[in-house]
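Milestone M4 deliverable, item 7.
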Amino acid sequence: MSYLLRVILPDRPGSLGAVATAIGHAGADIVSVDIVDKDGEYVVDDVVIDIGPGQMPDEVMSAAHQLPGVSVESIRPFDGALSTHRELQLLEAMSVDPTGAGQLMVDEIPRIFRSGWALLVRQDGEVIVRGDSAPEATHVTPWRQLLRAKIIDSTSDPVPMEWTVLDTSLMGAPAGEEYSFVCGRPGGPDFRPSELSRLAHLVGISRSIWLRHMEDTKTTPKP
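Output delivered:
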């Protein structure tokens, strides 16, 4: 079975190798590694591992935790491999069919950010498009249009209760003045500023494709 391990480790040569060795000694195989964030002192990596029958993910966590300066932020089941090319593939697909940009976004955002769901909501709270695992409500309240990309705090920002179940971490980015993309990660870990920047950039580019299609066709596209 595959798991996604988010590890924080010192930003120095040999740190990742030590983690890989510890994971191997715990009976797991590393499938892929993706750098999520780094600040010159520490690196945050998402590591996909395969655990054989009879092995427990807690054993892998314990093995990594025992290394000096290393901590495991989360471990959760994972059903695919990491791909650093998903954003480019998504933009290419939207260029081919700009009218379906909104649905493509909510389908692919969870895969890009290893989250649970995504949706596109209008400023009045109407859910325009949603991914397969997103909350099913077609209209949400309370809701306030995002003015900038932000990590959403469910304790202070106006968000519907159904978005916060299972201790869901939230981030969102405005798609123009009327719409916002919202991404949820049930059970965490919390979204990091680097992930928020990637989402804002991705939404900004997709919005440009959408607007260009509007100018070319002089019609209102589907979100």
